[in-house]
Design goal:
Blueprint: H1 2-12, E1 19-21, E2 36-38, E3 43-47, E4 57-59, H2 63-68, E5 74-77, E6 82-89, E7 93-100, E8 102-104, E9 110-111, H3 124-136, E10 140-143, H4 149-161, E11 168-172, H5 181-187, E12 190-194, H6 195-201, H7 207-220, E13 225-228, H8 243-255, E14 259-261, H9 264-267, H10 272-287, H11 291-294, H12 305-320, E15 324-328, H13 333-340, E16 347-351, H14 354-359, E17 366-370, H15 377-390, E18 399-404, E19 416-421
Helix pairs in contact: 4-5, 8-10, 12-13
Length: about 425
C-alpha cells in the first residue's frame, strides 16, 4: 500500500504524507462463550485470567484494568454502547451489573472513565510496529492513549533508538491527558483530537466544548492539530454525508483545526472515494467563508524572531495583496510558523527535501513546492519563483512575499523577509 501511494503521488506530482498510527494499550474484550445481547440488570463477571469461561464471564485483555477497578466504577464496553457498574471486587475477578445493555462481541473496546491504570505507553506490538513504520519511511508517527508528556517522551526515545527522525503526534483521547495539556503540547510535534475514545471517556455533552478548547490551545502554541473520528460516519454505508456531518467538518475548520481525518469511511467504508471527495468539497467551502479567517487564532511567541517574521509576512501579504508567501524551509519549521500566522494567501513551502515537503501536507494553507537548493539568497529566490510560476501557482506581474532563514541550509532559522514582483 505504501508503494502504491508513493507511486500515485509521484505520477500526479503531489507530496503525500503517510501517518503510522500505533495501537497503544487498547483494552478489549476477549473470546466470549456466547456472544450476544447483554440485558439491563444482568450480572456479569470481568476477568483477565487466561482460559476463564462460563455463563456471564467477559474476558478482558489487560489484567491492569481488573486490578484497578473499585466498587461503583463505571465500565464501558463496545466503545461506550454498554455500561456496567462494579458491585464487588476479588483479586482476579470483578462482579458487575449491566446498567445499559446492548450487543457484545469479541475484541470490542473497554474503558473505565476517570480510573487511572498502570499501562505502558508502548506495548510490545507498538515497538514492532514502530520498527516497521521506520522501515517503510512513514512521515509521521502517532502514539495512542497519551496520558502525559512522559508517554510522548518515551515514544520519542524509542524512535531515536531506531536511528529514525520522525515527528510524533500525540492522540488526545484520554480524560487523564486533559490535566497535562501544556506539557503534552510542548513535547509533541502535533496533536490529534481523537473524538471516538474521548467521547467514551467524557460525558457526551462535553465533547464539543473540549474539542474547541483543544484546537484553540494548539493554535495558541503553534502546534498542528488534527480533528478525527466519525466526521462522515454515515458514509461507511451511504454514498453521501448528512448535513449535520458537513456542519461538523466545517465547524472544526472554522475553529482552527489544521487537518480533518477520515477513518472507517475510507478504511472499511463502502464508498471511500466519494468520502474523500465529499470531505474535500466541504473543506473548500469552509475555507471560502469569512468565518475561516475571523475565528482562527494566530500563534504568537513574543521575543522569538521566527514568529515575528511569520506574522510580518502575513501582514505584508495582506497589505500588498500578494499572490502567495514563499517560505523556504529546511525542516518544515518556517512553513509551519507562517501557516500558524494564518495569512490570507497560500503559503508555498519551498524545499529541496522530499520528506520535508511531504510533512508540510499537514500544515493548514501550505502547498509543497519542490525547489532546488540555491548557491545564495538571490539564486534560491529565483529558483523557487521559477518553480512556482512553472507550477501555475503565480504569474508574471504578481507580488510575492519571501520568507527564509540565513545562512542558507541551516534548519530552524526564520530571519529574512523580502517582497518581489514575479518577472
Amino acid at each position: 500500500a505504501v508503494a502504491q501511494v508513493r507511486a500515485a503521488a509521484a505520477s500526479s506530482g503531489r507530496h503525500i504524507a503517510l501517518l503510522g498510527d500505533l495501537q497503544g494499550p487498547k483494552i478489549r474484550t476477549g473470546a466470549l462463550v456466547v456472544p450476544g445481547i447483554l440485558q439491563r440488570g444482568r450480572q456479569v463477571s470481568l476477568t483477565a485470567v487466561a482460559g476463564a469461561d462460563g455463563e456471564g464471564v467477559i474476558p478482558i485483555s489487560h489484567p491492569e484494568l481488573v486490578e484497578a477497578l473499585v466498587v461503583r466504577d463505571r465500565v464501558l464496553l463496545a466503545d461506550g454502547q454498554i455500561e456496567l457498574r462494579v458491585r464487588s471486587c476479588e483479586r482476579d475477578r470483578v462482579e458487575c451489573v449491566v446498567v445499559r445493555g446492548g450487543k457484545l462481541n469479541p475484541r470490542q473496546g473497554v474503558s473505565v472513565p476517570g480510573r487511572p491504570m498502570r499501562l505502558p505507553a508502548l506495548t510490545g506490538k507498538d515497538m514492532a510496529d514502530m520498527a516497521f513504520c521506520a522501515e517503510l519511511g512513514m512521515d509521521y508517527l502517532a502514539i495512542s492513549f497519551v496520558r502525559s508528556a512522559a508517554d510522548v517522551i518515551a515514544c520519542r526515545a524509542a524512535v531515536e533508538a531506531l536511528n529514525w527522525k520522525v515527528p510524533v503526534i500525540a492522540k488526545l483521547e484520554q480524560k487523564e491527558v486533559l490535566a497535562h495539556l501544556d506539557s503534552v503540547f510542548a513535547a509533541a510535534d502535533a496533536v490529534m483530537v481523537a473524538r471516538g475514545d474521548l467521547g467514551v471517556e467524557l460525558p457526551l455533552g462535553q465533547v464539543p466544548a473540549v474539542q474547541k478548547d483543544l484546537i484553540e490551545r494548539a493554535n495558541r502554541v503553534g502546534v498542528p492539530v488534527i480533528t478525527a473520528t466519525e466526521m462522515l460516519e454515515s458514509m461507511v454505508q451511504g454514498n453521501r454525508p448528512t448535513r449535520a456531518e458537513a456542519s461538523d467538518v466545517a465547524n472544526a475548520i472554522w475553529d482552527g483545526t489544521d487537518a480533518v481525518m477520515l477513518s472507517q469511511e475510507t478504511s472499511v467504508g463502502a464508498h471511500p472515494i466519494e468520502a474523500v471527495q465529499a470531505m474535500a468539497q466541504i473543506c473548500r467551502a469552509a475555507e471560502a467563508h469569512p468565518a475561516y479567517q475571523r475565528a482562527r487564532l494566530p500563534w504568537e511567541n513574543r521575543g522569538e524572531v521566527g514568529s515575528a517574521i511569520a506574522h510580518a509576512a502575513a501582514s505584508v501579504a495582506r497589505e500588498l495583496r500578494a499572490a502567495v508567501i514563499i517560505a523556504f524551509t529546511e525542516s518544515g519549521m518556517t512553513a509551519l510558523r507562517v501557516s500558524k500566522a494564518h495569512p490570507d494567501v497560500p503559503v508555498l513551502a519551498a524545499s529541496p527535501h522530499p520528506e520535508v515537503l511531504r510533512r508540510t501536507a499537514l500544515y493548514s494553507g501550505v502547498v509543497p513546492l519542490a525547489a532546488e537548493a540555491g548557491h545564495d539568497t538571490d539564486d534560491m529566490v529565483d529558483k523557487a519563483t521559477a518553480g512556482a510560476r512553472a507550477a501555475g501557482l503565480v504569474r508574471s506581474g504578481q507580488r510575492v512575499v519571501v520568507v527564509a532563514g540565513i545562512p542558507i541550509g541551516q534548519p530552524g532559522q526564520t530571519n529574512l523577509l523580502r517582497v518581489l514582483t514575479v518577472r
